[in-house]
Amino acid sequence: MSWKKNAVSYVTWFIYTVITGLALLALGTEICGRAGLSEYMGIGLALGYTAAAGGLAFLLHRFAAGRVSLFEEKRIHFTVLGTLLAVALFAVGFFLRIQGIGGAEYGSSIYYETAKVTEDQGIPESVHGAVYFYVRLLRGVFLLLGNNAVMGVWLQILLQLAASLFLFLAVRRLAGMTAGLVVLGFCMCGPYMVRSSLELSPRMLYFFLVTAALWYMSAGYGEGDDEPHRLSHVSGFFAGVLAAVCGYLDILGFALLFVAVGRIFCRGVDGGAKRKAAAVLLCAAGAILGFGLCICLDAWLSRKAVHRVAGAWLSLYVSEGFALPAEAGGLFAENCLLFGCMAFGIFSFWFDREGERISAAVFTVCGVMAAGCLGILTEELPAFFSLYLTCAALAGVGMGQCLHVSPAKERETAQEENPDFEILMEGMPEEKPRVQFLENPLPLPKKHVKRVLDYSLPPAAQDDDFDFPVAEDDDFDI
């Protein structure tokens, strides 16, 4: 899924470049500081790496542009290879989580103490929807398998694996196999994600719900942007409803609206301006209706007034002052790899003259960063977790664009290989050729005509007796 380049696209690229550049500058300064060098040398280190990433991105794109026909012929083989790599990443991620279960500290978790089954302990009410449903899910696991905190950790691992699968499928569908594998690599092998799966927290349940909604929104919008997709108003309405439900569970879920609206305006969507405007209105109506239904359902289940439930939800996200979203310790090497991959996107943006794929993710990053800096987000679902996943998606899209060849680039490559390409293409239609059937050499069957028995000699009544007169003593047949 990509969007036609316009003024907004270049603004989002500038924001993406600023975020990536500042992160690389900070990391370069930290590397020089740890090595005992002057921190000012970090500027040169960041610039040198950015230049190297640009050169490598250009070489990868030239390599892909020169082998377009090979990729098309071996598309099935590359798909199978990508699937095998994804399975291998899942296996490695599962092994890393099993290795970390023994050293995890989960017995003293507040969620374990709240959800464990005791004689007179019920589930306390919580304004935060994600926390409430997570505690209920954890209580159900403990009811079935006993008050063992390890069972809760296994639940976390399964939720994260399922969420990572949904995220991989969605990103692969929207940006290609390369982008999906990069995102899956960070989700499966990143130390931050491995550590998050071993902590009893509503993050993994919410991660699962959001990625399932993202997978639904990506349905029908694939990497092949040249094929038109029918714009469905019903699909847009339900996308707004899903974003509202996730937003009610935690305000971070409203970031899905960037994807829900962005899919309407992506390239290859079959629909005019009025139809797209109607789709946006229906998506907004679905979000408003879905949020209102969640408030009313909560009020009915808790037997409270609707305005009190809405006021409690709003009070949960009141700004608590300005603070930069950050995560404590142990992520330096991981951040180097993450922003190092994002540096490729600074240059791969220019490889496609017609489309771009970063707008929705960049708007999501800006929205989450603004909410985190203003202190709107909660401690249960901090901004850093969402920023990590969104930046991983941007890193995958940036690297995937290096291997993506636009139709205009394919035409230029074919013209370089064959100087008579334009002459050969004259008079040929731009769209894909339709199937041409051979003319049937056999005669077509004639239409059945009901026939009427009509003779020139009308039958007489005396001529309808066919018995031949025979004498009584005729014994010829004896």
Give the tags.
478 residues; mainly alpha; two-stranded antiparallel ribbon; two-stranded parallel sheet; 19 helices; 64% helix; extended
What does this structure look like?
The protein has helices spanning 7-34, 41-65, 68-73, 75-101, 110-115, 129-145, 149-175, 177-189, 191-197, 203-218, 233-249, 256-262, 273-302, 306-316, 332-348, 359-373, 383-402, 407-417, 421-425, and strands spanning 3-4, 229-230, 269-270, 355-356. The protein is mainly α. The strands form 2 sheets. A two-stranded antiparallel ribbon has the order 1-4. A two-stranded parallel sheet has the order 2-3. The protein is extended and about 140 Å long.
Fold blueprint:
Layout lengths: L2 E2 L2 H28 L6 H25 L2 H6 L1 H27 L8 H6 L13 H17 L3 H27 L1 H13 L1 H7 L5 H16 L10 E2 L2 H17 L6 H7 L6 E2 L2 H30 L3 H11 L15 H17 L6 E2 L2 H15 L9 H20 L4 H11 L3 H5 L53
Order of helices and strands: EHHHHHHHHHHEHHEHHHEHHHH
Strand arrangement, largest sheet?
1-4
Average of per-residue pLDDT values: 80
What is the first-to-last residue Cα distance?
97 Å
Shape: extended
Main beta-sheet annotation:
2 strands, antiparallel
Low-confidence stretches: 223-228, 421-429
Total DSSP E strands: 4
Number of helices: 19
In short:
With 478 residues, the chain is an all-alpha fold. The protein is 64% helix and 2% strand.
